[in-house]
Design goal:
Structural class of chain A: mainly alpha
Strand content of chain B: 15-25%
Shape of chain A: globular
Largest interface: A-B, 25 and 24 residues
Oligomer: heterodimer
Helix content of chain B: 25-40%
């Protein structure tokens, strides 16, 4: 496979995954806040700030009053904003276009049709009363794209590269969402004196990454900071957990590098190291310094991206 | 003449008896081959057609069969207009086209071999040497070079029209980088999505076997010493208006689609840059014109090509499809010698008609042309895409004088032909919500390899969407139709 095209496939995977997390984060936070248990978690400003925090922290630097319709437009449909859902979909389509001969007709056509739908979406309708319709349309379409990736492509290097993009992005998004909800819970604690351990934000967090039902089956108890973080970070069976993503990234990168012993500067080596480090971590280790853990993981994932660039895409 | 039907969708169908109408005979009857389709269409209302037309457009947009148009403000995605009324070609009619197109491709290939070797046809005075000497498309570097498999024009596009006499005439041969084949397949798939019901009533050949035949052809001309050749398609990139076609062809053949920057040359071998390092490339189906393929040999500022590629080709380490330098044989001046070229190399009579041509380089013919500009189509010899053409009966007196002056300035640059009357075909016109007759032509696609050849059973019917317009090129606002070749 051409190095240039591999780069396109990798980013196609990342942007597809990114758009889904953004859409679900908007949806869950907005609608959970409507009947949230306290004034802060019900506050529109609080919710909008949380959304912008996940989309792009930089946007929050100016501490001004946020307009709901502006924020929704910027995150959902503003093509001028690089963090928006429409930009993610457009980028996914452009990358798919650059690798068009390698992906299936079915997958290309679905991405292309989604791009057209999103770009033709009525902006006024969206910011006034279609947040739910729009975001569920995105999540449903991304699910269908994933099915096409799994079901219409040969499970070879092309597939492995796309899946690497998907799982690196998933780990990235999930850790950012954990970070955001942890911050929200802290704010509630500071302003409202509510319990950090039993905050409503943990439930919202689970829903943001579509893991609420799984978690209930696993623990059968009201979510607490301890169980939620354990589940979303370290449980290898939860398909949204960091551990699961690391395992998948490791297996796809091993597929690409075959049986060769990875060089210590390679992406494969770093991923292997990360995987095993996390496998033997306990939630107590993580909670001891959650902020430090999150920052380190974000840095490590970005280093994996750089090394992949070096190992696979740099010939281009 | 008004169409002999009360169908609302044909309410503004008025055909001109100066042209051959593909649907209606001069006696106002629907031609036999169209009868079933016509009856099926009569079941649709105007609203149905508006609806179907929108559906067809969606099919193209969703499949990404589009090209980009750039302006200062924004980038727009566009589709080539597609028409819902298919063109149908009967089996006997097709057999002649197929044989004729193949005959021309073979003759052109032998002609190219001769031009780049002994030039017997010139020495024997059949084709004048000035045509070759003055041609900007004759590549001196190719002289004496033997392309792998002995093939120059692996892919040929033959443009045909049907004249008032009901006969097909070849308007031109395209043997550089003929394009459009992806639209043959795309049009079929769009029509199947919109009007699937009509296919039950006709037995037509399918057109989806082009890719596999193309791969067979380009693999057959692998360089010496290569067992399993690695073939690629070379594209100028995603911003090229034919990018869809390039990706389509690569995908149909299951080969890589590369850009110049993906290729790398070492020790006269061509490699592509993959995730596993460098991988050797043996055959390049290049969709980049001659002058851009190698900045060291041709246009110095070309960013689309690969520095050193031509040298690898000359050393026989890689094959280029089509061969560089084919342009010398498909210009409009050579066209006029096609009957003699076919006779000379194949000892056969041409199966397809050539349009009679006047050479402005010959004094007596120049005289005739200057006296009859109003009855002729005057064409520059070396322009493509329908540019620089003047059609006599559309010109004002002043314009005629201007054309005469231009010809007199450099007669060698121009040829003239009688105004051929391109046949008309029912075409859905959005502004009118109705079918109207529009001029059409037909491009067929022929493949030549080492001991293997193929003609795609179907073709690209291009349609001039402006009323009365004879120029069907997509760059000048033309659209296209699905084209059915019927089985016996």
């Amino acid at each position: 496979m051409l190095a240039r095209v591999a780069n396109n496939l990798f980013w196609m995977g990342r942007y597809i995954e990114r758009s889904e997390h953004l859409a679900r984060y908007m949806n869950v936070n907005y609608f959970s806040s409507l009947d949230a248990p306290n004034d802060i978690s019900q506050s529109r400003q609080f919710v909008l700030r949380s959304m912008l925090f996940v989309a792009d922290e930089e946007e929050l630097k100016e501490t001004k009053e946020l307009e709901e319709q502006d924020v929704l437009f910027d995150i959902g449909l503003n093509p001028e904003k690089s963090f928006s859902i429409v930009s993610a979909i457009n980028n996914a389509q452009q990358n798919a276009n650059g690798a068009r001969d390698l992906i299936s007709t079915e997958l290309y056509e679905s991405i292309n049709t989604l791009k057209r739908t999103v770009n033709n979406y009525d902006k006024n309708r969206f910011v006034k009363n279609s947040l739910f319709d729009f975001t569920t349309m995105i999540t449903a379409n991304v699910a269908s794209l994933r099915t096409k990736i799994r079901g219409t492509l040969l499970h070879d290097e092309v597939y492995a590269i796309i899946m690497l993009g998907i799982y690196i992005e998933r780990a990235n998004q999930v850790i950012r969402i954990i970070n955001s909800k942890y911050n929200d819970a802290l704010i509630e604690k500071v302003n409202f004196g509510s319990s950090l351990t039993k905050s409503y934000e943990w439930t919202t967090l689970l829903k943001c990454v579509e893991s609420y039902d799984m978690m209930r089956r696993y623990y059968r108890k009201v979510p607490t900071s301890h169980t939620v973080l354990d589940f979303l970070i370290l449980n290898p069976h939860c398909p949204r957990s960091i551990m699961n993503s690391l395992n998948c990234i490791h297996s796809y990168i091993c597929y690409l590098s075959k049986d060769e012993m990875p060089h210590k500067d390679s992406a494969a080596f770093l991923i292997g190291k990360l995987k095993y480090e996390h496998e033997y971590k306990t939630i107590e280790d993580v909670q001891g310094d959650l902020k430090g853990f999150i920052e380190k993981l974000v840095d490590d994932l970005s280093l994996v991206g750089e090394k992949m660039d070096n190992d696979y895409f740099s010939l281009y | 003449m008004k169409a002999p039907t009360s169908l609302p969708i044909f309410s503004s169908y008025e055909f001109d008896s100066r042209f051959y109408d593909e649907i209606f005979t001069k006696n106002n009857e629907v031609r036999e081959v169209y009868q079933t389709l016509f009856n099926l269409f009569s079941e649709y209302s105007v609203d149905d057609f508006v609806n179907l037309n929108d559906k067809a457009k969606d099919a193209f947009f969703n499949q990404g069969i589009t090209f980009q148009v750039y302006s200062d403000q924004e980038t727009k995605e566009k589709i080539f207009p597609f028409d819902l009324f298919p063109r149908i070609i009967g089996n006997d009619e097709w057999t002649k086209i197929e044989k004729g197109a193949l005959q021309r491709s073979k003759a052109l290939n032998l002609f190219l071999w001769d031009l780049y070797h002994d030039q017997k046809i010139i020495k024997q005075g059949i084709v004048p040497i000035e045509l070759i000497n003055s041609s900007a498309n004759y590549l001196k570097q190719m002289h004496g070079f033997n392309p792998p498999g002995g093939v120059y024009n692996h892919i040929s596009g033959t443009d045909l029209i049907k004249h008032l006499d009901g006969e097909y005439y070849v308007l031109e041969d395209n043997i550089r980088c003929p394009s459009g084949v992806s639209y043959v397949v795309g049009n079929r798939s769009a029509l199947k999505r919109t009007l699937f019901g009509v296919f039950n009533h006709y037995k037509s050949f399918n057109v989806s076997d082009y890719g596999e035949n193309l791969l067979e052809v380009i693999e057959s001309v692998k360089p010496k010493g290569v067992d399993l050749p690695k073939c690629v398609v070379l594209t100028p990139g995603v911003y090229n208006s034919a990018y869809y076609e390039h990706s389509f062809l690569a995908k149909q053949m299951g080969v890589e689609l590369v850009e110049g920057r993906d290729l790398f040359i070492e020790n006269d071998f061509v490699y592509m840059k993959t995730i596993k390092g460098l991988e050797r490339v043996d055959v390049i189906y290049r969709r980049v014109d001659d002058e851009f393929i190698d900045p060291l040999e041709f246009k110095k500022d070309s960013l689309l090509g690969v520095p050193g590629l031509f040298k690898c080709y000359m050393k026989g380490k890689v094959n280029l499809v089509n061969a560089p330098g084919t342009g010398v044989a498909d210009d409009k001046a050579i066209y006029t010698y096609m009957p003699q070229i076919i006779k000379y190399y194949l000892d056969e009579e041409p199966i397809l008609n050539n349009v009679h041509t006047y050479h402005c380089s010959r004094p007596d013919e120049l005289k005739y042309v200057l006296e009859n500009v109003d009855k002729l189509v005057v064409k520059p010899v070396d322009e493509s895409g329908g540019y620089g053409i003047s059609i006599g009966n559309k010109l004002t007196k002043e314009e005629i004088e201007k054309v005469k002056e231009t010809i007199k300035e450099s007669p060698r640059k121009y040829i003239a032909q009688p105004i051929m009357s391109l046949s008309t075909h029912a075409t859905y016109i959005e502004e009118e919500n109705s079918f109207e007759p529009r001029h059409v032509d037909l491009r067929t696609f022929t493949l030549l390899g080492k001991d293997v050849d193929f003609v795609l059973k179907g073709g690209l019917t291009r349609v001039a969407l402006k009323r009365g317009n004879l120029v069907v090129n997509s760059s000048q606002g033309g659209g296209s139709k699905d084209t059915w070749v019927l089985k016996k």
